[in-house]
Amino acid sequence: MSTTTVPTTIVTPADPADPAPVPAAARSRRPRDRMLRREGSRRSVDVIVLTAAVGVALLPLLPVYGSTSAVVPAVGGLVLGAALALVAARLRWGAMVTAAAGVGVYLLAGSALATRDAAAGGGLVPTRQSLLLLLTGAVTVWKQVLTLDPVLGTSGNLLVAPYLLALVATALAVGVALRAKGRRGVWAALVPPAVLALAVLLGTKETVAPDLAGVILAALLVAWAAWRRGTLAVRRPVALVVMAAVAASAGGLAGPLLADLHPRFVLRDELVPPFDPRDQASPLSSFRKFVKDWKDTDLLTVSGLPEGARIRLATMDAFDGVVWNVAGAGTAEGSGSFRRVGDTIRTSVRGPVETIRMEALHLPFVWLPTVGYAQSLTFEGAEAADLEADLRYDDATGAAVLTHGVPAGTRWTTTVVVPPTPDDDAIGAAAVGPQQLPKPTGVPDAVPLFAGEIAGTATSPVLIARSLQAGLAERGWFSHGIAGSGDYPSLSGHGADRITTLLTADVMVGDGEQYASAMALMARQMGLPARVVLGFIPAKDQQGGDPVTITGGDVQAWVEISFAGYGWVAFDPTPDESKTPRQDTPQQQAQPQPQVMQPPPPPQDPVQPPDEDTEQPRTSDRPEQPVVDSPWRAVATAALAAGVPLVVVLGPLALITALKRRRRRRRRTATDPVRRVVGAWDELLDEARDMRRPPPATATRREVAVSLADTFAQRRGRRASRRPTDGRRRGPSVGRPMATLAAGADEIVFGPGQPTDEQVERYWAQVDETVAVMRSMLPVRHRWRAAWSTVSLRSPRRGRLPGSRSRRLRRR
User: Fold this and answer.
1) Tens-digit pLDDT profile for residues 332-360
2) Cα separation of 561 and 468, whole Å?
3) Mean pLDDT highest for which of 12-16, 234-238, 354-358, 618-622?
4) How are beta strands 548-551 and 530-536 bridged, if at all?
5) 3-state SS, residue 524
6) Which of 109, 457, 607, 718 would bridge 603 by S-S if both were Cys, CB 3.0 to 4.6 A apart?
7) Residue 705's closest CA among 747, 736, 748, 749?
8) 393 contacts 374 by C-beta, under 8 angstroms
9) What confidence score (pLDDT) does residue 107 get?
10) Looking at the predicted structure, is the pLDDT value of residue 480 above 70?
11) Inter-CA distances, 608 with 34, 429, 463, 619, 799, Å
């Protein structure tokens, strides 16, 4: 019987502790997976850093739109731009395809982010109007941003500017970083500074946001660029932050001195407003037309007018000897800057806030009636958009115009601040305000004579103003001079001839046009900042909030004078309308003429007489001529402005150079000649460290010489490989000089006796020659970097043999 042997296979159970075998294909994928993970991390950092940098660059636009109005479109543009760049880089889209996709994203998302009011579905669904606003806004919004006074708000397509800037800049910066190969991706860091420069030009004179954005961008982008190039070190961002802090501190010290000499440049200040009030006739010249032709004509209706409030038509601050007019934006002084405004109007005036509604019935001029100082102004009706485009507002005077006139039936609602009127006791001895107004020309001689007579003893600006007001109101008589109404003869006009007649005639007679002009001129001669206002003052029984109908008979002219801490205060120099002269009034008057009255007593402080007229006092707080700064002060300011940045930038470099020279001098002047030789060798090693060629830490001198020779030979080889092979002689080598210096140092340190001074100086000369050869083998920018490198000042110098130990070895 045969026996068959069946081979058996013994299977040993696997030990759970033993690692499972990895297939060869999986092992081959591991380096590729690690590379992909590193690439993904790099892309994430690029996207995050550049998107944040563009967002920081848009900070100067926030004050233009308000605190939060531009945040939503800007953040939306940042996210969409980064997403567009990622998708385009992943799918390898070309420039044309990426641009077309960007236009589509801009239109689809722009309705919800930039033109929400014109979109449907709660501002989320694009409509024909929203798309049209987006398309036109890409071209026209920049002009609107520059011509509208901040705060712009969210009306129309104003938000297209931050949205479009964020979208395009982020897509460009992230796209360049993701698509560029190697170190070329750092060129994406130029996009955020360009956006910052554009945002500053479109912004206001506010410096907080631009300075903050500049410091953050410098620290963020420099650190990112160094990381992208593989040269990031912790000390570099720290040094950059320290230097930025020093520069900010220096700017804080020199900024207040240079603010008046060199104000920050913004484009909106260079644009000439489309409306120039100097092209219009003087509003005050139409005073007699109101009372003659429109006395019983309904001009406008007002609802919500507070008690005691006045309706302003125009504010005039320039006198040329013929008429009072608005100075206009083309002058260096004055308050005639009429600009377009957005949804919100900035005002520094404090007081109760009122909502007033007006409707124009018959206003055949460009001046739009206002009350107080507006915070917002909204038109009603089908023509509201056209009227808003025509609106120009002067926030310094509270006056407004419609450049194409005020059509009948125009309705508007305005939210205004009505400043309270302080009494004389509250003003007290307050100085005059800081406003600079155009100097009047053609002022008649009767003005300073009369002003000196009635206000010569006043001791404060407010008392001078009240004296002028009372002198005119008490001595003068009222008459419009309308012959058909039986008025006492009184000529119209308010120029130099008419004011001379008013102040020197036997009977001082006129109406608000003449008295307001006369008081404003006298106040200017007394050093008070005064301006003339034309407007309407309703009867007292018509004030208090009920609808009021204004007629031409309500017209009035008054004077406003500025006081520090209280703003512009109104004064009414016109006599009461019931104080009318009779035909025999000149024979019955005691003739209190300025020419025959006794001169006033000497003025008291703070009133001082000017040089040209001893009877005309002037407040000492308001000199007529500006004080001219000393040229030495200007030189010192310029030196400070130039010196602080130079110290900040060049100071650390000079300190590094001084420390290196001090170290070299101590080594070369040591008392022991052996220590001087060791110091020369250490100087060579320190130079190599500053050139980013550090020697081995524990090697001997000969080994160090071989290592440095090999390092510089590789550098020379790489530079020679980039040049064409033409048989020219290659550059110098440091191998032989290094070996000679290492052998010479060992011979002097370990040899018997002491080296002579000539040997030491010869050794130092060889070290200097070798260092010069080492520098010549570096690129120019690396030579400058080595000259001010702090590596040798910070790193420990190991592997050298101190002089004391070398002497002990020689003794053995």
Assistant:
1) 456 667 888 877 888 888 889 999 999 99
2) 12
3) 354-358
4) unpaired
5) helix
6) 607
7) 736
8) yes
9) 92
10) yes
11) 86, 15, 14, 6, 83
- Write out the E strands in 114-189: 148-149
**DSSP symbols for 429-453:** TPPBP----PPP-S--THHHHHHHH
pLDDT at 769 over 80: yes
Instruction: Categorize the per-residue pLDDT at 100 as very low, low, confident or very high, splitting at 50, 70 and 90.
Output: very high
Place of tokens 């009429």: 338
Q: Computed from CA positions of residues 479, 484, 485, 488, in that sequence, does the dihedral angle turn out positive or negative?
A: positive
Our CA angle for 155, 156, 159, nearest 5°, is 75
Task: Find the distance separating the first CA and the last CA of the chain, reported in whole Å.
Answer: 96
| 399: three-class secondary structure by DSSP | strand
**Residues 73-87: b if buried by 16+ CB within 10 A, e if exposed:** bbbbbbebbbbbbbe
HEC secondary structure over 691-751: CCCCCCCCCCHHHHHHHHHHHHHHHHHHHHHCCCCCCCCCCCCCHHHHHHHHHHHHHHHHC
Alpha-carbon Rg for the chain in angstroms: 41
pLDDT tens, residue by residue, 110-119: 989 988 888 8
In total, the chain counts a number of residues equal to 812
Give CA angle at 242 (237, 247), nearest 5°.
Answer: 120
Q: Cα–Cα distance between 99 and 89 in angstroms, integer? A: 13
Residue with tokens 């160090």, as numbered in its chain:
704
Measured CA to CA in angstroms, residue 45 lies from 34, 53, 179, 577 at distances of 17, 12, 14, 78
Q: How large is the greatest C-alpha to C-alpha distance in the chain, in angstroms?
A: 174
Give the residue among 360, 310, 358 at the shortest CA–CA distance from 536.
Answer: 310
User: Per-residue pLDDT for 363 more than 80?
Assistant: yes
CB 539 within 8 A of CB 303: no
Confidence of residue 609 (pLDDT cuts 50, 70, 90): very low
Mean pLDDT of 459-485: 91
Indicate the pLDDT class of residue 798, thresholds 50, 70 and 90.
very low
Task: Report how far residue 395's alpha carbon sits from residue 312's, in angstroms, rounded to the nearest whole number.
Answer: 13
d(CA 577, CA 301): 24
Q: Are 311 and 359 in contact (CB under 8 A)?
A: no
CA-nearest of 251, 243, 252, 231 to 652 is 243
Q: How confident is the model at residue 412 (pLDDT cuts 50, 70, 90)?
A: very high
Peptide bond into 151 cis (omega under 30): yes
- Residue 52 φ/ψ, nearest 5 degrees: -65, -35
